[in-house]
Amino acid sequence: MRTPFASSVRQALPVVLPFAGLMAWLTWYVQDNGFFWDSILLASKYGQWYYQTQFTTLFVPEQLAGYPPLFGMYLAAGWHLFGKTVSVSHFLMLPFLLGIVWQVYLLVRRFLPTPWVFLGMLLIFLDPTLLAQSAQVAPDIVLLFFYLVCLNAMLQHRPMLLAVALAFMAIHTPRSQIMLVAVFLTHLLLLWQDNGKLALQMVGKMLLPYVPAGLLLLLWLWLHYRHFGWVGYAPSSDWSTYAGIVSAQEFARNLFLINWRLIDFGRVGLWLTGLILLWRIRNEFSQDTKELLILLLVPLMTLIAVLVWFTNPIGHRYWLVVYVLLGLLAVHLLDHVLTRRVGLTVYLILAASLVSGHFWVYPERVAKGWDATLAHLPYFDLRRQMITYLDEQQIPWQEVGSDFPNLAAPADTDLTHDFRRFPAKDLTRQTYIFYSNVFNGFNDYELAELRHHWVVIHEVKKGQVYMRIYRKKKALYHHQ
């Protein structure tokens, strides 16, 4: 006799397997790509510290500190078991990627009818930033997994599972700690919607799964403060400027940036479709629509309420939870409001819009979120080619200025034994500049200087990524 669980798994497999296969293939495809963007610090440097110290200390050196230890320790443990390589690092992400597939399936199955379940998942996994982060050793992927577990645990009334997921979020990253608030507020609003009121006994029972996470968070913050004398950013670090409170002008700029991040890379179509369809049914929201709006708007408003006040750069990846729920809401509304034929037509337009996101190219002077689309994939091979060229030409690295994320040693980006580094760019002192359109730190003046007073001596290009070695004209003439 077939059990309900076996029947449920049998029904899920045809939908889940293609996406699980996609994540497995993507992991295999990018396994030689080094650590990229903030993962150089949060994955490689943290992981290597715990790996080298054999877990004998909870705290990283102060110049790296500010983040909880969970992700770095996980990577270090994986390296001890399977070897410290970039490839192993990527495959250590695969359990979380497969977990995201399953958690997304559980959400989609709850809010969409059977004919739309596959299409709903497809639109979610077409999101450029979700795919780009899935191709990296990225702590935000782990955050997304635990957040989705929390949502499903709430909706399925599984307090023990919720407590476990919340506890992991409490010691993962500062942003996952912020998202604890979003989970709590979401839970509170869902409870109020289901019961029409919030009785004290009801709220008390709801709070129980949050107690372990709250205690863990307080313990970590206390231990960190006791050890370093601060929490957040080290006052002496380069990152401390990002903890500053914004001016009125910077506040407006942050609001603009947040809106840009949310609609960027083809997502503008999803927001417009969602708003138009919500307006059409504004007087007759179904229970599912109300639930989805709570799931989407609470993390969105929580993150805005925190991030908008600080000078910290606002990345696309911060909004992964929002992107997943936005895709789900869009498909829910297509099914709920439009006829099947019209809904499928709009769906195809939205899917094409998301695919186009990988090809959105901004002018050279406009910073692009390279860690947020698959457009960044050629970077790693081109960087290896450039390093080979410099070594063949016997050009010392200390004479070659560059910019983030190319300032870290190959020992940190590729887990090699090469500890050489490029110094930060200084066009007044250096003879060579290693430039790529992936580097967002070159200002308008520096770009004009490179065009007019420097010569390209080597260039490589693939896809949307290009890299150049510039040599100062005066230095070139003197050399000749």
TrEMBL record:
Transmembrane in keyword set: yes
Protein name: Glycosyltransferase RgtA/B/C/D-like domain-containing protein
Native organism: Rufibacter hautae
Positions of transmembrane segments: 12-30, 89-108, 114-132, 207-225, 260-280, 292-311, 317-335, 342-362
Keywords for the protein's UniProt record, in alphabetical order: Membrane, Transmembrane, Transmembrane helix
